[in-house]
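To the team - flavin-adenine dinucleotide complex, inputs and output below.
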Amino acid sequence: MIDDNSKKHYIAIIGGSISGSEAAFILAEKEYRVVVFEMNDLPYGKIEDGLPKWHINLRNKQEQNIDEKLNHPNIRFVPNVKIGRDISFDDLVSNWGFTVVILANGAWKDRDLPVADINKFVDKGLVYQNALLYWYNHKHELNYKGSNYIIQDGTVVIGGGLSSLDVMKLGMIELVQNALFKIKGLEIDLFTLEKKGILAVLNEYHTSLEELNLKGMTLVYRRNAMDMPLKTPKDTTEDSVIKAGVVSEKLLYKYANNFMFQFIPMSSPIDKIESNGKLEAVVFHKNKIVNKKLVALKEETFKLKTPMLISSIGSLPEKIIGLPYDYSILKMKNDNGYRVDGFSNVFAIGNAVTGRGNIRESKKHGTQMTNKIIDNHLTQDKFFENWLINYNNRIKSEVQVQIDDIEIEIQSKKIMPNKVIDMILNKTKTLQEKAGYKSYESWIKLKTPIRLEDMSKN
Ligand SMILES: Cc1cc2nc3c(=O)[nH]c(=O)nc-3n(C[C@H](O)[C@H](O)[C@H](O)COP(=O)(O)OP(=O)(O)OC[C@H]3O[C@@H](n4cnc5c(N)ncnc54)[C@H](O)[C@@H]3O)c2cc1C
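Output:
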């Protein structure tokens, strides 16, 4: 069923990945017109640049799903435009004529490691997870121009959670793959190492970390294995939480065994030791849990010497000037957390709201919140009327041309004036032309990078 209110609205979505494409599709199917602004060539977000490249089936399935959604006649995809850099948020909200702006820009800023002054070692001994995963997923591409990393034996990783386990796997695969080639002359592809596990591959070739001259990597987590958010509890009851904890613990030790890394629980970084301007070691303090709360044992410390430190302690939404934040989290109104504070027509979905989540949660949040935006705002005449009044007042004060025409059109038809629609179409077309974009399908074909072949199937 087509909602009559649809023709009144033109909606901007920032970010085209899991949650952005979900929202765009729901709106487009209801005949709302949508522009999706995406900062990268491709709209796949963490699926392309975060999820390690061995997740071939998951990546292909999710990217195909995003394509099916965004390749819609009511959606205009505008790549290579970063809101906050290429267009200011103020400008987008105030001057472009969109009735609603939806933030689906995910969480791309690594949380800062809580050690004073440690960031001076970024890319000089310290690597943050988002940069590392970007390199890992793209380094095989012929025209890759980003940072380059060489995983060092003895690397320490700080974190806990599924993505930290991916970081451990990635690092151990790199180390062992290189050592197998260098020392044993064996060329084992990453997909085989990931699927079988390092222990199984080393056993198969009758070798060991020792023979490969490797110590391996160490994961340090502030709590116990059972507290790791590896398995989501079914509900909030104590029983479900304990059951999920048991699964998380089993998972962690299974990974540590199969990928041959060390695990140090109940420890948090507190300081660093440097030598000749290089990061030499990290100092940790132990923790204990009292009444389910983490208590720091500041006197009980130990240090780990490391040639490379990887921080995998989570991501936050990258701040966009013009939006309100509570520390690093987007400040939301209290009505179930989808309306951004201080705006009547700006909403946020997916990882952009919490900085956390997985594909399922991002999709679900995208769907639920978009339906709420439609039911509670877009289909309410009052919402559109308010937008009209605001828009009218703004253009009256800012642009003294063609106002009379627009006013007449607004007041008589109570729909979005053609001049506003034309303005959105013209401005977005200029941006598409600047990027060299012609159609969604041809663009995706042109920009999809070379994929590695999964040799484990041969
Ligand atoms: C290492 C790792 C492993 C993971 N493994 C899994 C897994 O196995 N299973 C699972 O379910 N989930 C996994 N996830 C999580 C999953 O990838 C994310 O939860 C999901 O992709 C989030 O979707 P999103 O649309 O909210 O955000 P994103 O995917 O981050 O999309 C945000 C989009 O917005 C764009 N953007 C950002 N800022 C701007 C701007 N200012 N202007 C214009 N565009 C902008 C970005 O380029 C991006 O396309 C993993 C994540 C990581 C990092």
